[in-house]
Amino acid sequence: MKYAKFFLIALVVIAIDQTSKLLVYHNMYIHQEINVLGTWFRLHYLLNPGMAFGIRWESEFGKLALTIFRICAMFGISYYMIKMVQKSAHTGFLICLALILGGAIGNVIDSTFYGVYLNNAPLGVPTPWFHGQVIDMLYFPLFNFQWPAWVPGIGGDYFEFFSPVFNIADSSIFIGVVIILFSQKRFFKEELKETKPTTEPNQVLVSDTATDTPTTPVE
Description:
alpha+beta, 6 helices, 47% helix, two-stranded antiparallel sheet, 8 strands
């Protein structure tokens, strides 16, 4: 039962992720864009054959390797989370692992099955299995401008922040990783206590053998 609540969190992430992707698939066309909050938060339907946040891996072998890696990572994270629950790890850390697991499984489902059931595998792949394209839709172009012509190397180029298009699974993984990175002292404080030295490094113990007086630290 102690494992169930964390796997339930992962399951909720998967459900939200897959629901959002299927809603986009059935109600939007590729590259359609819908403003949600002004122009800085939009839904933009894209198919991503590569990695998170719109990063692409062009070679066919690379895509297959990425899918296999995602499947291995899914089982690896599940096993690690079970071991951490057994060790009574910090609840916040376990929740972060559940977010990462849910996001990983969400994208594994796309890569493994969408090529078959949604027929979205790229043209020319040897099999639609394991070659499905991930559905991305979250787009936050917070601001944009054109670099002045006098700026070396990038003068005249168009700049947009934040340009990647991603999904709920990507967001869940990103949030889990970032919280772990910034909360290490809180999540792993017991481990830090165990590794902390008990004496100052510049102290030495001196014994007075002549008088058998207790040892005292001397700077």
